[in-house]
Specification:
The protein has 579 residues and is mainly beta. It contains 4 helices and 40 strands.
Length: 579
């Protein structure tokens, strides 16, 4: 025999209650059938009060055989989302299927529900041999009503069996919290119970025998009955709800169900408990983090919530903060958080230097820093929020060298520093850009677009370099200097108007040394010409009175006064004149 142990499937905390609606596919009890027969459709009526609002609805359908997992509910296709099964004596298979039909029930509300296309007819001949031919369906309807007390409603499901070969079935119900036992109740969806088989059959809850006379006597709990409608003709299935007010104690967090049978084959598919519960349920989320580059301070925005709760979360609920599971800080809630509400805050964390650059940040609510809290909660395992954090660091870089170029006239210099885009960065994925002032570099505004041909008229100009990675940037700088480079004298003059060396040309002089003075002397030391930045170059003529005449061929001497602090000494030399 195999099956699936019942376990908690869903939990609802608030002003909730539940009911069942369902029906059998058996035309009569299988124990009384001489010729096996079964329907493929049946109907049942859902009746809720006007102020009951459907929260959730789950359908379970079951039968003999290996399964039919596609049915219709009010002509709407429904496909199984979860399956359960067990087998008796290696040859008699049974199945159960589950689907969430909330939208159908919410849309159609009260009225008749018909399940069709549930077909196990191919299996009933075999199962008739041991009178286990059956099929049926049940919908667990969870509804909300603001006039209800605060309840905790748990739905457990699986497929467990009690029978002649397994006389005792024990079901442990966990994840319950009992504030008081007023109105506590227990519901079953069970299959294959028989009205006339009551051989040592019993149902106990926390050691107390349950009954619901006259519908469910102590010795025959699963007997083809429906507690909601009072029906005794729900052949080979049971939808029963028991009052358990006197069978559970305030403060209980678990319960024990025990079933016995020495003959009847009973399958428990679903158990629903409704208990009055008043507990908070603290959860926490990390909403955002903000951090500065090269700083161990991290600003964390977080939210503490009290959803799915039945009591407010008290002020001063502790919050522990961990980095790689090492406690680094502690805080508390500053307000009482009502049911289904939340509270947001923030904290500045100082990350210890022992924490690696990449670490796991954990916020744990209702944690004193020892993984132990002070608040009893509905769920004690949902108190943490995790986030992988990478600390931000400015990119490292190589310092760029200052650059110098020659004045090409009136203080203008042209530079190419485009290679610095690659040379300054240490990481290949970093980006580099250039700016004319620090403010623009900080704002990433108006970068220099032509670093390969940058022109300046300043004797010294600072260029700011922004090196940027994914999260941070660094700024460095280098200087551009425009200097007056030494003049270069071309000391051969052929004044013949052929366009070549027709005058005395000195490179890097005019419009650079604006105050220069140039003197030309013949071999006897007589001054024959003098000029400056405002006069043209000497063309080999000398003035005699008011007449310009050609100077004779030969060697002449020049004296060049640059009148520049960088060149205090006169530059002297000779030139040769010819025609």
């Amino acid at each position: 025999m195999q099956g699936q142990d019942l376990s908690l499937y869903n939990q609802f905390n608030g002003r909730f209650d539940f009911t069942f609606v369902g029906n059998t596919m058996n035309p009569n009890e299988n124990s009384f059938q001489t010729v096996p027969s079964i329907f493929t459709s049946s109907s049942a009526t859902l009746t809720l009060n006007p102020n009951d609002v459907v929260e959730k609805a789950f359908i379970y359908w079951a039968g003999c055989g290996t399964g039919d997992f596609n049915i219709k509910l009010n002509n709407i296709d429904v496909t199984s989302e979860r399956n359960f099964s067990n087998v008796l004596n290696t040859q008699f298979n049974f199945f159960s299927a589950f689907a969430d039909v909330t939208s159908i029930i919410q849309n159609q509300g009260n009225g008749t529900y018909t399940v069709s296309d549930l077909d196990v007819s191919s299996f009933i001949e075999l199962h008739h041999l041991n009178r286990t031919n059956f099929a049926g369906w049940a919908i667990v309807v969870v509804y909300k009503n603001d006039t209800l007390p605060l309840n905790q409603l748990n739905i457990y499901d699986g497929l467990q069996v009690v029978s002649s070969t397994q006389n005792l079935l024990t079901i442990n119900l966990n994840s319950i919290n009992v504030f008081d036992n007023d109105g506590a109740k227990l519901g079953f969806v069970a299959w294959e119970g028989d009205v006339n088989i009551a051989n040592n059959e019993s149902l106990t809850f926390n050691g107390n025998v349950l009954s619901n006379p006259p519908l469910n006597p102590e010795n025959n709990a699963f007997n083809s009955t429906n507690s909601i409608t009072g029906s005794t003709t729900l052949y080979n299935m049971d939808l029963d709800i028991y009052n358990i007010e006197n069978n559970i104690q305030i403060g209980d967090t678990s319960a024990l169900i025990e079933l016995t049978s020495f003959q009847d084959y009973v399958m428990i598919n679903t158990v629903v408990t409704k208990l009055n519960s008043q507990l908070p349920d603290a959860t926490i989320t990390i909403d955002a983090i903000n951090q500065e580059c090269d700083s161990n301070a991290i600003l964390v925005d977080y939210t503490v919530s009290n959803y799915n709760a039945t009591k407010e979360l008290p002020t001063n609920t502790p919050i522990a903060i961990y980095a790689n599971d090492v406690l680094i800080d502690f805080t508390e809630t500053l307000v009482t958080i009502p049911i289904n509400e939340s509270w947001s805050s923030q904290i500045i964390l100082s990350i210890p230097s022992t924490v690696p650059n990449n670490f796991e940040l954990k916020l744990a609510v209702d944690d004193l820093g020892t993984s132990i809290g002070i608040v009893n909660e509905i769920v004690e395992t949902n108190n943490t929020a995790l986030l992988n954090v990478s600390q931000f660091f400015k990119p490292k870089f190589y310092e760029p060298q200052d650059l110098t170029t020659c004045n090409i006239g009136f203080g203008k210099g042209i530079f190419d520093f485009s290679l610095y885009e690659e040379e300054v960065k240490m990481e290949q994925n970093d980006s580099v850009s250039f700016y004319e002032n620090y403010e623009n570099a900080e704002l990433h505004f108006n970068p220099i677009l032509n670093p390969f041909n940058y022109e300046t008229t300043q004797a010294t100009q600072t260029i700011f370099v922004r090196i940027e990675n994914e999260n941070c940037f660094a700024i460095t700088s280098f200087n551009l200097s425009v200097i007056n480079c030494p003049p270069e004298v071309y000391n051969f003059v052929s004044s013949n108007n052929d366009g070549l060396n027709d005058d005395f040309f000195i490179e890097n002089l005019r419009d650079i040394f604006l105050n220069f003075e140039l003197f030309v002397y013949n071999r006897w030391g007589k001054l024959v010409w003098q000029g400056n930045n405002n006069l043209p170059n000497w063309d080999g003529t000398i003035k005699e009175g008011f007449i310009d005449t050609n100077a004779p061929n030969g060697t002449y001497f020049y004296v060049l006064k640059l009148n520049d602090d960088s060149y205090p000494d006169d530059l002297t030399g000779y030139l040769y004149l010819t025609r």
